[in-house]
Amino acid sequence: MCQWHILHRLDALCASEAAAFDKGHGMHELPIVEDIIRCMDRESGQRGFSRISEIKLSIGELSGMVGECVQMYFDILSEGHSCEGAKLVFEYSPVKFICSSCGREYERSPDFRCPACGGEGIRKRGSGSEFSIKSFEGEP
Ligand SMILES: [Zn+2]
Predict the structure, then answer these.
(1) pLDDT tens readout for residues 121-132
(2) What is the pTM of this model?
(3) Ligand 1 mean position to 53 CA, how many Å?
(4) Burial of 15 (0-12, 13-18, 19+ CB in 10 A)
(5) How many of the other CB atoms lie within 10 Å of CB of 12?
(6) What is the Å distance from ligand 1's center to 107 Cα?
(7) Ordered domains of the chain (ranges, CATH)
(8) Which of 69, 107, 111, 127 could form a disulfide with 29 if both were Cys (CB 3.0 to 4.6 A apart)?
């Protein structure tokens, strides 16, 4: 059985849907799960997959997305689609900080200060709020 492993970010995959996320008002799981399923239908059609077996999702810890909720909506909504029964794998991506003194990038520290020089950290733009399809596997 052949398997493909394809790296994709949701914003590359579905530019229009990603634009809708950016507009904000409520990162609720339901419309996003619908987007994932739409993307998977389109991708499986284009690549000739009969089904999608696994989807890796990257969830920023500030995105407000809850893996269990994504899974619940997905189980219900994917019925009859190419990704029905696919395994969802969640990877949580942390907020990143950039030190305002030395420019070092770091994930977290007890007081949010730079672990190298103690300088003040500034949240890296967009970090921790991302939500994307990292990769998926399909079967022909
Ligand atoms: Zn520093």
Answers:
(1) 999 988 888 888
(2) 0.70
(3) 43
(4) exposed
(5) 11
(6) 12
(7) 8-15+27-139 (3.30.2320.80)
(8) 69
